[in-house]
Amino acid sequence: MDYAQQQRSWGRHAPSILAVIVLHIVIGWALVNGLARRVIEVMKAPIETKIIEEIKKPPPEVPPPPPPKLAAPPPPFIPPPEINIEVPKITPPPTITAVTTTPPPPGPPPIARHTPPVQPLVRKEYKASYRVNPTFPREAIRRNLSGSVIAWVHVAPSGAVTNVEIRQTSNPIFDREVVRALSQWKFNPEPVGFIGEYEIVFNLKD
Prior knowledge:
By secondary structure, this protein is α+β, with helices and mostly antiparallel strands. Helix content is 26%, strand content 15%. The protein has a domain at 122-202: TolA/TonB C-terminal domain (2-Layer Sandwich), CATH 3.30.2420.10. It has helices spanning 3-8, 10-33, 35-43, 138-143, 175-182; strands at 122-124, 147-155, 161-169, 194-202. The model has no long low-confidence stretch (mean pLDDT 77).
């Protein structure tokens, strides 16, 4: 007989098969009788825990506060005896009042009247000792313009011209030449200055 036939023989494996059958029978009986359930219930039994509180020591006893000290009551008030002393009356001597007369306050200071300065006389076309004639402006010649200017010449007592004032003009183009020329005029000295009024005519001749 070869090795394969020996392994296939039933008698060789019979003990193992019986052991397996017996094990299944025992497990089934245990399930039927609730043995496994009891084991599980034993495993599931609650675990009791206890909390042990720490024993606290009682606080030390505090001595009671001492009783308050009672102050001694004040002695009874005894009013002093009243003593009436007569004080002699002293009449003061009569006071002498001196009457002083105060002078009246001074009046307001006199108002100084301002007298306007005397304006110098205006002399029309007064003859000068030295004259410079104005020249015709080139701009007026180029534009073919004619016109006239009335000017005041302020003359000092020495005869010199201090200012030339344009009083009336037909065209400002002539003013500058009038001021330039009349500022060079000379007059005879006089005690009082004056103003000379002059009309300068610019006529463009053909």
